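About this split. The held-out portion is used to measure sequence recovery: a designer receives only the structure tokens and must propose an amino acid at every position. Recovery is the fraction of positions where the proposal matches the reference. Here is one held-out target exactly as it appears in the evaluation file.
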């Protein structure tokens, strides 16, 4: 059966994803700390497995390079589990929302067959990218820190900019050398969607700023607002503490 988009099967799959996230939390919570920690590390490798699958399975590695946000998250997540780096951890606390968004806004993957390896290597890694990131904070391996807001915004914009340059370079290379896909069309690249919008939400951004690369800065504004809300309790406590020390 086809996965579909916002049909019964798709909605059931989202419920299953939520069930996996909650169920795994309570399962991990019941484990000894050391076993829990290394279980998190093993779960964090699911995204790496998906990257390898996509590079090999489709016989077109240029189209499946790990330059989308979820793929970059997949590469960073095992490193964060091992190092417990608070800056990258707080970054992924925001980026992991992209994994859930990819499951919800699945129009490009709606024709995936259930069950199939294609569906499995999309659905499971995206679910676990969100879950493992949240678990790192829930189990106290990394702490939320409002002082990471500048690094979160800066790293996001920096990586997005680098990926856009990669898009431009790959598009130029494939056009100049007439490198085509299976259908005979010249390959074009849109990693991190910096070139054109591909979802209704991104199309709204494009209406505000109708230019490649720049239109996603609407998302940056939303990111800053979200971070302000996410860290609001910490920010308020810090401001109160600062006022008390002045007195």
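Reference sequence for scoring:
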């Amino acid at each position: 059966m086809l996965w579909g988009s916002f049909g019964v099967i798709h909605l059931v799959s989202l419920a299953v994803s939520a069930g996996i996230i909650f169920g795994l939390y309570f399962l991990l919570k019941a484990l000894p700390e050391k076993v829990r920690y290394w279980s998190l590390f093993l779960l964090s490798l699911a995204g790496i497995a998906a990257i390898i699958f996509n590079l090999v399975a489709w016989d077109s590695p240029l189209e499946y390079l790990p330059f989308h946000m979820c793929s970059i998250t997949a590469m960073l997540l095992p490193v964060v589990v091992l190092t417990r780096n608070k800056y990258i951890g707080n970054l992924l606390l925001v980026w992991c929302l992209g994994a859930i968004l990819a499951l919800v806004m699945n129009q490009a993957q709606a024709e995936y067959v259930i069950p199939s390896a294609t569906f499995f290597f999309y659905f499971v890694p995206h679910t676990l990218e969100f879950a493992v990131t949240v678990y790192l904070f829930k189990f106290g391996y990394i702490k939320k820190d409002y002082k990471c807001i500048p690094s979160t915004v800066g790293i996001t914009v920096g990586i997005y900019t680098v990926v856009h340059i990669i898009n431009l370079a790959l598009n130029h290379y494939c056009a100049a050398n007439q490198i085509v896909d299976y259908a005979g069309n010249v390959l074009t690249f849109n990693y991190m969607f910096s070139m054109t919008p591909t979802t209704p939400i991104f199309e709204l951004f494009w209406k505000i700023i109708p230019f490649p690369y720049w239109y996603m800065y609407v998302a940056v504004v939303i990111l800053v607002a979200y971070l302000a809300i996410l860290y609001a309790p910490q920010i308020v406590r810090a401001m109160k503490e600062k006022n008390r020390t002045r007195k």
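Annotator remark: The chain has ten helices and no strands.
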